[in-house]
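Chapter summary example.
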Amino acid sequence: MQPQQTYKLLFSDFPDVVNIAEMCQMLGGISKKTRYRLLKQGNIKYFRIDQSYRIPKVNILKYLDLIEKSLS
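The structure predicted for these 72 residues follows.
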């Protein structure tokens, strides 16, 4: 099995749009400081609803560089 398929299976339990806590789980339990830095620096695209950050799962896969590789 290719690494891209492994990550897709690993993240299959997560919804298509995740919150901050779910994003941290997907990224191996990163710290609070790291998660906000990734978002604020634009490394992972997100949107906000009121005070809540929402991150499309596809943007996390792009950050992990899995989307482009899986399309090749």
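To summarize the output: The mean pLDDT is 85.
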